[in-house]
Amino acid sequence: MNIFRTLGQKPWLEDANPALPLNTVPEVDTNAAASIVLRFIMAIVSVLFFLFIITFLSRSQYPDFQALAGQPWQPFTDASRLWLNTGFLACASLAMQFGLRGARLTRINHAVIGICAAAFFSVLFLLAQLDLWQHLQAMGFYVNSNPANSYFYVLTALHGLHLMGGLIVLSNVAFRVWYDEAPEALAAPLKLCTTYWHFLLGVWLVLFALLTSTPETINALAAMCGF
Fold first, then answer.
1. Rounded average pLDDT over 11-16
2. What is the pTM of this model?
3. Which residues fall within 8 angstroms of residue 96, CB to CB, at 6 or more apart?
4. Domain membership of residue 154 as a residue range
5. Is residue 7 part of a domain?
6. How far apart are CA 72 and CA 52, in angstroms?
7. Cα–Cα distances in angstroms (integers) from residue 94 to residues 70, 90, 116, 169, in the given order
8. Are 227 and 61 in contact (CB under 8 A)?
9. DSSP character string of 165-181
10. 26 pLDDT above the threshold of 90
11. What percentage of the chain carries pLDDT values higher than 90?
């Protein structure tokens, strides 16, 4: 009889939680899933910018490539405008961290201030980048006049688009501030946004260093990559 009892067992049913109906789908941890998606997005963005940087270094070895820094007449020899824009983005990143800390401490006012300040400095950064574009065009540094110019416009445009995407997601988080009655529920999505802002700041610092490099530095980097 023990043999027949053993053969008649259905372990896939016995292991199920008896308190749940058989057709019940287990709940998915949305925060963990969102974290995985964010890591995937940052990995793709990192690869994208890495490939652009590699092609930048490869293209720099052609005679028609003229770096944007190094000589007095080059626009980024004086990188004060870029430093100002970097300061705006750094303030946005710090504001995100401040808002995240407020959300973790369930201080909704601090979280709101951090989100609003981050959005303000991010938009200010984008406007400053557009103003820099106009400044370069006024100086005669057009998109098609030099490969280095083209890379500057493409890289800064891609970075700006990713920042605009982050602002769209952040606006959704801001709506949670107004409609969610539990301030502690704000910490998880705001943490993801903060990570993304820190990531974009890191990407911009790499682009800043690359675009303000002298021809000697660019050639050295190209040589290290085998170009």
1. 49
2. 0.86
3. 114, 115, 118, 190, 193, 194, 197, 198
4. 31-224
5. no
6. 27
7. 31, 6, 12, 18
8. yes
9. HHHHHHHHHHHHHHH-S
10. no
11. 70
